[in-house]
Specification:
single chain, alpha+beta, 3 helices, about 30% strand, elongated
């Protein structure tokens, strides 16, 4: 009988802690930036998680564990869906935006379709 009392107190305490954590996350709001995956140079290497920030007038890609990549002067050259092989590494429902960097390099950024418009506003499409 004492075990049931102890287990119910533990379950109640755990529920209280989880509800408290959930409320704190709701109050904090969503983090800034557009979440996604990127690889530099385009078509090579691994997909790395990070966020695209378009604040202060200059866009930048902030990988999770590397220095930021400035996207000032970068242009989006193509938008496509991931291949089957890429869909294993990234979300198969995402969209991949190929970008030409100002210094001559290339990079690909994969974002969800709902975030595509915000990405194309931060990194404008190349005009022909």
């Amino acid at each position: 009988m004492i075990e049931f009392l102890f287990l119910s107190l533990a379950a109640g305490g755990l529920g209280w802690l989880l509800r408290r954590r959930h409320r704190q996350r709701l109050e904090a709001g969503s983090p800034a930036g557009i979440p996604g995956m990127a690889r530099i140079p385009a078509g090579e290497g691994r997909w790395r998680p990070g966020r695209l920030y378009a604040d202060q007038g200059a866009a930048r890609w902030q990988p999770a564990r590397r220095p930021a990549v400035p996207l000032a002067g970068a242009r989006a050259t193509a938008v496509r869906v991931p291949s089957v092989r890429e869909g294993i590494s990234i979300n198969p429902g995402s969209r991949i935006v190929a970008c030409a960097l100002e210094g001559g390099g290339t990079m690909e950024i994969a974002v969800m379709p709902l975030d595509l418009r915000a990405l194309l506003e931060a990194v404008p499409e190349e005009t022909t």
